[in-house]
Write a structure and sequence with these properties.
three-stranded mixed beta sheet, 2 domains, three-stranded antiparallel beta sheet, alpha+beta, GMP Synthetase, Chain A, domain 3, elongated
């Protein structure tokens, strides 16, 4: 399976701006620029999109790992905060809160660690991945 997105950029790196659209059209000409990336201008950034992808991928992988262990989660909420240093993404910090009936705290931590190491986005990132996992 393949998925694609297209970015269009106009102008210089500092002054220019662009749009990004996804194959599904969930993103349809979403704006991005140096200002949306490093300041508080309205629009998205590559780091925000990577954080969204990591949070979604991790949540789905955790659900699969829990299922393989015999548990069905009522809910999983994950926030990924991606940090950029000088020209590189240095860290993705996951904060996950999950409600999983019948699981012990120890087993939940084991499943969360498995998902953190094995979700496809974690494997793709060349960055430190940290996590706080809370069983509700």
């Amino acid at each position: 399976m393949k998925r694609s997105s297209t970015a269009k950029w106009n102008g210089s790196g500092k002054e220019g701006s662009g749009t990004i659209s996804s194959e599904s059209k969930v993103l349809n000409n979403a704006t991005f620029s140096t200002r949306t990336r490093f300041q508080d201008a309205e629009g998205t950034s590559p780091e925000e999109l990577i954080a969204a992808a990591h949070a979604a991928c991790f949540s789905m992988k955790l659900s699969f790992v829990l299922g393989e262990a015999g548990f069905t989660p009522d809910s999983i909420e994950t926030t990924s905060t991606v940090e950029i240093g000088t020209d590189t993404i240095t860290n993705s910090h996951l904060v996950v809160k999950a409600k999983v009936p019948g699981i012990t705290a120890e087993k939940f931590q084991e499943c969360a660690a498995d998902a953190k190491e094995n979700c496809p986005v974690s494997k793709l990132l060349n960055a430190k991945i940290t996590m706080e996992a809370t069983l509700l």
